[in-house]
Amino acid sequence: MASRIRSWLTDWTVVGPLIAVLALVLTWGRKLPLVVVLLVALCLAAAVLAAVHHAEVVAHRVGEPFGSLVLAVAVTIIEVGLIVTLMIGGDAKTASLARDTVFAAVMITCNGILGLSLLVGAWRHRVAVFNAEGTGGALATVATLSTLSLVLPTFTTSRPGPEFSPAQLAFAGVASLVLYGLFVAMQTVRHRDYFLPVKQGTEEHADPPKASAAWLSLLLLLVALFAVVGDAKVVSPAIEDGVSKAGFPQAVVGVVIALLVLLPETIAALRAATRDRIQTSLNLALGSAMASIGLTIPVIALASVWLPGTLVLGLGSTHLVLLALTVITGVLTVVPGRATLLQGGVHLALFASFLFLAVNP
Questions:
Q1: Mean predicted lDDT score pLDDT of the chain
Q2: Please, what's the b/e burial string for 41-70 (b: 16 or more CB within 10 A of its CB; e: otherwise)?
Q3: Which candidate, 57, 29, 8, 4, places its Cα nearest to that of 234?
Q4: CA-CA 20 to 30 A from 299: which of 263, 306, 339, 340?
C-alpha cells in the first residue's frame, strides 16, 4: 500500500496538475517577471499533457462517445467561468470577449483540429474514414448554433450595433441549450452508433481501467483543465504586452488564449487520428465547438442581468465570410464519410486564413 502511494505521488500525471494549480495560486493577480511567466508556461504545458492522459483513461473506461464528451464539456465549463469572471471585472474592452472567444473556438476546432486530424489520418492510412451520419448532424448543430448566436445579432434591428435585445438574447440562450442537450441525447443514447469509430484501434484490446482509477482520472482531469485555463489567464498579460509591442490587434490575445485552452482537445484528437480513430477526433473537434457555443451563450445570457456594459455578439463581415466558408467546406467534407489529404489541407488553409486575418485584419 505504501509503495502504491509513493508511486502515485511521483507520477507526473498527478504531480503536474497539482504543481500547475500551485503556480496559479501563487501568481494570480500579480505582475510577473519574464522568468516566472516562462515557468508558469511550463506548468501549463505539463497540465495540458496530463489532461490528455486522464481524458484517455476516462474515455477507455466509459467508451466512445462519452470519452470525447467528458473532455469537451469539462474544458468548456471552466472556460465559461473564466469568461464570466473577466467580463465582471473588465472594462469596455470585454464587451466582445464572449464573441471573440466563441468564434475563435469554432475556427480552431472546425478547421484547425478537424483539418489536422484528417491530414494525419489520411497521411498514415491513405484515407480517413468516419460516420457521415453522426458527423453531419454535429456539423449541422454547430452551424445552427453559430448562426443563432454570432450571425443574427449583426442583422437584428432592436438594438443599434451587433447586439441582441434582452428578449433576443434570452431566446438565443434557451435555443442553444436545448439544441446542445438534444444533440448530447442523440450522441449518447438514441443514435450512439453514429458516433462510434468505423475502425476500432488497437487500444480497444486492452482491459479498461478499474472504476476507482477512472474516478481518480476524472478528478485529476478537472484539476488539470482548471490549471490550464487559469495559467493561460496568468500568462495573458505577457501575451498582451507581446501583441501590443508587435502592433497586432487586441483580438489576437483572445485567439492565443483560445489556442492554449484548446490544447488538450487538439493533442487528444491527433493521438486518436494516428490510431485510425478519425471519428473520435471529429467527435472532439465538433463537440468542443458545440459545447463552446451551447454552454457559453446561455451562461452569458443569464449573467448579462448583472454584467456591466454592453454585450457584443455579432460578427463582422470578414468573420461572417470565414464562418460561411467553413460551414460549406465542412458539409462537402463530411457528406462522403471519407476524406483525403486534400480535405485536411483545405480546412487548414481556412484556419491559416483566420489566424492571418486576426493579425492583419
A1: 82
A2: bebbbbbbbbbbbbbbbbbbbbebbbbbbb
A3: 29
A4: 263
Burial label, 104 (beta-carbon count in 10 A; 0-12, 13-18, 19+): buried
Are the C-beta atoms of 40 and 255 separated by less than 8 Å?
A: no
Cell matching residue 221: 482531469
| Residue 334 near residue 132, CB atoms below 8 Å | yes
Cell of 86: 473577466
DSSP β-bridge partners for residue 270:
none
pTM: 0.81
What type of residue is 32?
Answer: L
Contact 218, 13 (CB under 8 A): no
**How far, in Å, CA of 256 to CA of 259, rounded?**
5
Cell of 41: 508556461
Total domains in the chain come to: 1
**What size, in residues, is the chain?**
361
- What is the 3-class SS of the chain, one letter each residue? CHHHHHHHHHCHHHHHHHHHHHHHHHHCCCCCCHHHHHHHHHHHHHHHHHHHHHHHHHHHHHCCCHHHHHHHHHHHHHHHHHHHHHHHCCCHHHHHHHHHHHHHHHHHHHHHHHHHHHHHHHHHHCCEECCHHHHHHHHHHHHHHHHHHHHHHHHCCCCCCCCCCHHHHHHHHHHHHHHHHHHHHHHHHHCHHHHCCCCCCHHHHCCCCCHHHHHHHHHHHHHHHHHHHHHHHHHHHHHHHHHHHHCCCCHHHHHHHHHHHCHHHHHHHHHHHHCCCHHHHHHHHHHHHHHHHHHHHHHHHHHCCCCCCCCCCCCCHHHHHHHHHHHHHHHHHHCCCEECHHHHHHHHHHHHHHHHHHHCC
Neighbours of 97 (CB within 10 A): 21
CATH of the domain at 128: 1.20.1420.30
* Boundaries of domain holding 68: 2-359
Query: What tens digit of pLDDT does each residue of 262-315 get?
Result: 887 888 889 889 888 899 889 889 988 888 888 888 888 887 777 666 778 889
Considering the chain, what percentage of its residues have pLDDT values greater than 70? Answer: 87
